[in-house]
Write a structure and sequence with these properties.
- 35% of the residues are buried.
- The protein is elongated, with a radius of gyration of 22 Å.
- The chain starts with 17 loop residues before the first strand and ends with a helix.
- The chain is an alpha/beta fold.
- The strands form three sheets. It has a six-stranded parallel beta sheet with strand order 2-1-3-4-7-8, with helices on both faces. It has a five-stranded parallel beta sheet with strand order 11-10-9-12-13, with helices on one face. Strands 5-6 form a two-stranded antiparallel ribbon.
- It has ten helices and 13 strands.
- Helix 4 packs antiparallel against helix 5 and helix 8 packs parallel to helix 10.
Amino acid sequence: MEQNEHIKQFPDLMEGKKIMYVHGFGSSAQSGTVRRLREVFPQTEIIAHDLPVEPHEAMELLRNVCAKEQPHLIIGTSMGGMYTEQLYGYDRICVNPALRIADTMTTHGLTGKQTFFSPRQDGQKEFYVDKQLVKRYREVQEQGLKANGGEFIYGLFGDEDDLVDTFDLFHEHYPRAIRFHGGHRITDKTFMHYIVPVIRWIDDQQENRQRPIIYIDFDCLYDSYGHPASSMHKAYEKLIEHYEVFVVVTTDEAEKARPWIEEHLSTPAWHHVINTDRPDLLYGDYFVTRKKADDLMATSLVFGSEEFKTWEDTIVFFERLGGQ
């Protein structure tokens, strides 16, 4: 895995739990995503297996592994996202799921002789996809989208994915369908910025964990040119590690705010935007605002004041609190 500044460890997240990873078409348990999971979550057991090329055999293997291991979370990408959707009864994240894998194989020429993208335990380097195998993939894909409803399942969809787009299909069956900035392939950046926050939500739900709440007025996020304020992204990333962060938008700001937030904050802000003209009714721990308000039901931090002149100043304040 290529190392860069995006990778960071979270030993307390999913600590002592099991995450099962389901790889995509032509991949293996030695994929880059498996290595990311093991590096980012050092206190978590990461379970990953090379999947048989035959889809019925792959599903049988996955169900047997689930029954034996009882993973706390299953993450599947592409074809593995299709398989993961069908592992009902477990919390799951489906990343760019190829829910119509047979159609994808035909449309994008994934037939004939194929080469595995990453090493396999059995040493196999090539496999062959014929019409009969595509038919069996179609049989398996048709068994999907039969929601149980008791577990948490998220679908994450890259807005630059030119291979698979099943957002609408997924959303017909599940409410947690979210776009993120990226393509079909998962990079370090997309993993850290868009997948890790969702893992954090699921871990919080499993632990019944209530994080302190921070509200941020929308106009604190951008500068006079409408661009993200200096160090805003850095502050936002740090804050969501320890707090439940909500962006507060007034009626007058709503038309501008929605596309801006989707572009600049994306996945972590999903369902974390509050539209209200009565911020005094919001109960929380901290409120970052440009105007001092004594009627807020949270500690007011006046952004732009001497104490909180920049987002760097705000970062320092919250670092001193240590997540409290």
